[in-house]
Amino acid sequence: MKSTKQLFARRRNRTRGNVRRFNTGRARLTVFRSGKHIYAQVIDDTKGETLAAASSLDKILSDKLKTGASKEAAGEVGKLIAERAKSAGVEEVVFDRGGYLFHGRVKALADAARESGLSF
Questions:
Q1: What are the boundaries of each domain within the chain?
Q2: In terms of CATH architecture, what is 4-115?
Q3: For the segment 6-39, what is each residue's pLDDT rounded down to a tens digit?
Q4: Which of 61, 71, 78, 86 fits 109 for a cystine, CB–CB 3.0-4.6 Å?
């Protein structure tokens, strides 16, 4: 029987493979979700560099948020990553959810980023 880590890695690799296969030169918005915080990055895979990053640990957000592990925190991180991506000149991205389900905090981050002007 496969362990939880092996199953997660399989889902992550399948998602990343689809993102790379169908990517048409757009940057990739990737999400990492831990038990206490949530992180997001906009990555240009052709150059191999991070264009924008935001997390619930940022000074701007950590003063406002009660905890970094809520949907409200994920929404704030989504707004912040959209602002930073737009200031870096990125309007269209491909959403890479990793091995996480598109539900809860991951969905809240994606919805907030869409509402703030990112297209995916």
A1: 4-115
A2: 2-Layer Sandwich (3.30)
A3: 999 999 999 999 998 888 889 999 999 999 999 9
A4: 78
